[in-house]
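input
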Amino acid sequence: MKPTDNVIRFIARCNDLTLQIRGIHSCINKSESPIEQIFIVALLVVMDISRIPLKAYYNYGIEVKAQANFGDYRVDFALNSYVSEIKRTVVVELDGHEFHDRTEKQRRYEKERDRYLQSSDDINAVLHYTGKEITDSPFNIAADVLSHLFPEASNAGMILTPHDSDYEDSIIPVR
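output
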């Protein structure tokens, strides 16, 4: 491979990352807590390492919606996969103690919402993570979410975290 080929590959990779960052920016702006922002950034990193694009810029990939509505209920994140013919939707709730389960009314609302979401034919999984899980292991949580969207890729070991690969080589694939 000629050095100019490496430069072209590097520039193309940077352009892909720029598009992904722009696409995720609106989710960060809509997020309502620091743990939601941490999750979005970790999700972007794991998507990049695993070579999963945002649908906003391609005809396939993942569509990420922050503060998404389902019926009368709002969820922290809804992720839709458009990689295979089978569309999968995963709802992610990040349960920081400041925003969840503080009163009986909040607990009742969340339980009703979960029952509604779990009974929907359009949703494949409703996943809850604590704020501590997000701050302690954001990349593993992001990989877990992606494994629910792409079980085949997960079973094949194709969903990676920075701990599973040399992330620097993943960002700058110049060899």
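quick obs: The longest strand covers residues 62-70.
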